[in-house]
């Protein structure tokens, strides 16, 4: 059995925020697979589907971000899921908006949800899909940034990022973490490239005196 966890905060006031991109990805997977993520268990909402000869559980913790590990550890213990069958999807300020990276392991960085998971699982040795949300402007508070919403101009970038993350989930289950990393980490988000090109074209020095 595989556990696919998206991190976020429960509540309509958090819908569409940068910190909820993990939830958004789980919602996209559930829609694509035709299942509902609504069963309440172990401080989370879950939904199950079968693919590639495997039973796969989608998870949205309902503990709020800072206590996400309580839900994940509870489900893994209850269903006796090995840590190598866990992958966690979450937002990352250390990646540019729209960039997706898969890793086998790693630290929590500044992410409180990942800190909670590592604490409750007792190990950082689990796979994760990081979706870049970019960094706040100088002087802006991090909490306001991650709980804010994407600019309309970023919608295409983030939609493509979610699609890539979902593809990463499929690769992870079907072919393993190494191939998932090879397939996804080398991908280029054309929407990101176009945004960068537009920004660079607007700063080509042609208006300098």
Automatic annotation (TrEMBL):
Lineage, top ranks: Bacteria, Bacillati, Bacillota, Clostridia, Eubacteriales
Cellular component terms per the entry's GO annotation: cytoplasm
HAMAP family hit by this protein: Pept_tRNA_hydro_bact
Positions bound to tRNA: 14, 64, 66, 112
UniProt-annotated location(s): Cytoplasm
Annotated GO biological process: protein quality control for misfolded or incompletely synthesized proteins; rescue of stalled ribosome
Residues the record marks as site: Discriminates between blocked and unblocked aminoacyl-tRNA: 9
Keyword Cytoplasm carried by entry: yes
SUPFAM superfamilies: Peptidyl-tRNA hydrolase-like
Record-given protein name: Peptidyl-tRNA hydrolase
Keyword match RNA-binding: yes
Organism: Acetobacterium woodii (strain ATCC 29683 / DSM 1030 / JCM 2381 / KCTC 1655 / WB1)
Transmembrane segments: none
Subunit structure: Monomer.
Top-rank EC class of the record's enzyme: hydrolase
Active-site annotation: 19 (proton acceptor)
Family: Belongs to the PTH family.
Keywords of the record: Cytoplasm, Hydrolase, RNA-binding, tRNA-binding
């Amino acid at each position: 059995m595989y556990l696919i966890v998206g991190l976020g905060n429960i509540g309509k006031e958090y819908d569409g925020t940068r910190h909820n991109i993990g939830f958004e990805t789980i919602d996209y997977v559930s829609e694509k697979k035709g299942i509902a993520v609504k069963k309440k268990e172990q401080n989370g909402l879950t939904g199950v589907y079968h693919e590639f000869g495997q039973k796969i559980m989608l998870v949205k913790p309902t503990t709020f971000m800072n206590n996400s590990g309580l839900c994940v550890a509870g489900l893994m213990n209850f269903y006796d899921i090995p840590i190598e069958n866990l992958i966690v999807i979450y937002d990352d300020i250390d990646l540019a908006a729209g960039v997706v990276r898969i890793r086998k392991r790693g630290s929590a960085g500044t992410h409180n949800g990942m800190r909670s998971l590592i604490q409750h699982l007792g190990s950082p040795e689990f796979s994760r899909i990081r979706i870049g949300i970019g960094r706040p402007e100088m002087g802006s508070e991090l909490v306001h940034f991650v709980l804010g919403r994407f600019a309309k101009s970023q919608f295409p970038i983030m939609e493509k990022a979610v699609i890539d993350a979902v593809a990463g989930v499929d690769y992870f289950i079907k072919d393993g973490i190494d191939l998932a990393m090879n397939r996804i980490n080398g991908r280029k988000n054309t929407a990101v490239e176009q945004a960068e090109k537009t920004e660079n074209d607007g700063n080509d020095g042609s208006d300098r005196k």
